[in-house]
């Protein structure tokens, strides 16, 4: 799957640049845009694309935890995943703008990259590339399901979910937890069933899911910032060296500024993505409530978290971390 993805990206970028109809300066062409409200708002809107794309690297980190030296391999894997996505995605967008038959007929905005591919390639080769992309997407789906299954099993093993005994049970023959995989698959099928006859709801669900990911990031960066302000990692008790005997990486004096930037960025992305834009959450205009799906979801999730937080008592079922 990863091989198909890499080969497909390289092939698509190569096709775009070899069939270019305009130069790379197209990215500086504003078209018929006016002077208001200015480039600041355009820059904020462009952040939506990165917000939807530069996520999911947690899965790379989780899988890297199974290596011999996860303290070093996991961060390197995450950096590599983000760098490859930025480089490949940026070149693909630039190539599509250069190779698109037209930038003003509206087809690029509505049909996206498949429009450019089928325009510059003969139909069979364009179809082959789309099949390659489909395989890559399918494998990515399996990777996400694997990560979600691992997460559900881990939480059930620690008694943090309803029906934890069932979800944490490991099949003695295969050595894998079957219940989490089946449950997640059924939930995904149910979500896809909502899309039947109403693609607007599916688009809304996709947008809300991205917001929930940023909320999950904030659940890491905010507590970490609190601990840093209390003196961590200077006051931390634990190993100072990794499995190879090398000193653990530390941001040093940059720890607090970087952590603050992470919290601010995460909060701004939640606000930006949750803003009730009809073009994103209710493009057809059939269900006005969908426009407010993101703010409602954020409020419900935060409220549920506050209600379930164990205030004034010991954390139930504490997790014991091995050395």
TrEMBL record:
<feature type="transmembrane region" description="Helical">
    <location>
        <begin position="174"/>
        <end position="194"/>
    </location>
</feature>
<feature type="transmembrane region" description="Helical">
    <location>
        <begin position="80"/>
        <end position="104"/>
    </location>
</feature>
<feature type="transmembrane region" description="Helical">
    <location>
        <begin position="289"/>
        <end position="309"/>
    </location>
</feature>
<dbReference type="InterPro" id="IPR002293">
    <property type="entry name" value="AA/rel_permease1"/>
</dbReference>
<dbReference type="GO" id="GO:0016020">
    <property type="term" value="C:membrane"/>
</dbReference>
<keyword id="KW-0812">Transmembrane</keyword>
<protein>
    <submittedName>
        <fullName>Amino acid permease</fullName>
    </submittedName>
</protein>
<feature type="transmembrane region" description="Helical">
    <location>
        <begin position="40"/>
        <end position="60"/>
    </location>
</feature>
<feature type="transmembrane region" description="Helical">
    <location>
        <begin position="248"/>
        <end position="269"/>
    </location>
</feature>
<keyword id="KW-0472">Membrane</keyword>
<keyword id="KW-1133">Transmembrane helix</keyword>
<keyword id="KW-0813">Transport</keyword>
<dbReference type="Pfam" id="PF13520">
    <property type="entry name" value="AA_permease_2"/>
</dbReference>
<feature type="transmembrane region" description="Helical">
    <location>
        <begin position="124"/>
        <end position="153"/>
    </location>
</feature>
<dbReference type="GO" id="GO:0022857">
    <property type="term" value="F:transmembrane transporter activity"/>
</dbReference>
<feature type="transmembrane region" description="Helical">
    <location>
        <begin position="200"/>
        <end position="227"/>
    </location>
</feature>
């Amino acid at each position: 799957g990863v091989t198909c993805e890499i080969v497909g990206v390289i092939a698509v970028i190569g096709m775009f640049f070899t069939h270019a109809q305009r130069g790379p300066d197209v990215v500086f062409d504003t078209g018929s845009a006016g002077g208001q409200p200015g480039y600041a708002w355009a820059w904020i809107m462009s952040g939506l694309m990165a917000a939807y794309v530069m996520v999911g690297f947690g899965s790379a980190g989780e899988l890297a935890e199974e290596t011999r030296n996860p303290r070093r391999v996991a961060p390197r894997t995450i950096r590599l995943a983000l760098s490859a996505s930025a480089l490949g995605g940026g070149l693909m967008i630039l190539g599509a703008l250069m190779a698109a038959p037209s930038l003003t007929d509206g087809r690029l905005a509505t049909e996206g990259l498949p429009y450019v591919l089928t325009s510059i390639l003969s139909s069979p080769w364009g179809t082959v590339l789309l099949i390659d992309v489909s395989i890559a997407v399918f494998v990515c789906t399996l990777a996400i399901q694997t990560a979600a299954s691992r997460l559900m099993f881990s939480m059930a093993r620690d008694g943090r979910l309803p029906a934890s005994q069932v979800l944490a049970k490991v099949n003695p023959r295969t050595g894998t937890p079957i219940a989490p995989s089946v449950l997640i698959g059924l939930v995904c099928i149910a979500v896809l069933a909502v899309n039947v006859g109403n693609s607007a709801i599916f688009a809304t669900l996709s947008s809300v899911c991205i917001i929930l990911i940023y909320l999950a990031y904030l659940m890491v960066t905010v507590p970490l910032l609190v601990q840093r302000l209390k003196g961590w990692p200077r006051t931390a008790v634990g190993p100072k060296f990794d499995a190879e005997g090398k000193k653990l990486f530390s941001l040093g004096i940059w720890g607090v500024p970087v952590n603050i930037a992470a919290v601010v960025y995460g909060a701004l992305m939640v606000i930006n993505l949750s803003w009730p834009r009809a073009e994103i959450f209710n493009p057809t205009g059939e269900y006005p409530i969908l426009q407010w799906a993101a703010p409602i979801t954020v409020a419900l999730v935060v409220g549920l978290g506050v209600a379930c937080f164990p205030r004034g008592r010991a954390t139930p079922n504490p997790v014991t971390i091995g050395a």
